[in-house]
Amino acid sequence: MKFTCRTGCARLAQFAVVVLWSCTPAGDHAPGDVTDAAALPRLFEDCTPGKAEAPCQAGLRCGLVRVGAAPYLGWLTQCVPVVASSLPEEAPCIFDAQTAQPEGAQPKRFDRCAAGLGCVPLPAGEQRCRSLCPLRIAGACGAERLCVLPSPVSAVGFCAAPDGCDPLAQTGCARGPSGGVPGCYVLADKERAATYCLTQDLLGDSAGDSGSPCDRSANCKPLLSCVTLSPQATCRPYCPLPRADGGTGPAFCDEGQGTCHPINGYDGLAGRCY
Question: Taking 60 as the threshold, does the pLDDT of residue 27 lie above it?
Fold first, then answer.
């Protein structure tokens, strides 16, 4: 796919890598060094964050790349320069660095996060440098965090500690920047599960009601979870699991919603109806 070069980049040497800076929430930082791209032949080569072996050559890191310009934006994970004064984990960040592109090439921007990190949107509405990881792969983030929150790139997530909210009572989530209260969802990798506060992310024209199609739980309304059922994943209610003492307890699932099943890897009191 061919695109018009961003204004001014045609005046740069075709193979010069120049980091451009603007005022950012991260504060004032000195510009990165100008780097000769001829010494970095694997610049913008596709890569996979979290691979055991180094996915990029020395001087490069595997990071998030924003391609194009609004409203036509895309996202990739590619080898980008490790810039001077790289930002540490949890630092505020934006995509304010770019390189000269060949004439007609799609403009690309990347962040200034350190190696292993990427600038990701958090549920609170801000962007911070976080450790990138293969989405929903067990053990990618150690014992305290899970890789269950998605980055803008499919199959790539970022490490995040659970929020400890209650998916049945829908409590434990603070108000978001718009004033609304996020929903509490149980998210899981292949071994563990925990609760996270997320703003509902509508899928297509679906409202996220029970029985609606979904790709992930945040596509569903609070009190609902995305469950993979044949022939597709659908939003299904959370439910209180049966009491361990054998008591009757509350009604577990409404009529027609199935029975209450435990969530693999989750030690809380919530299950899912199907």
Answer: no
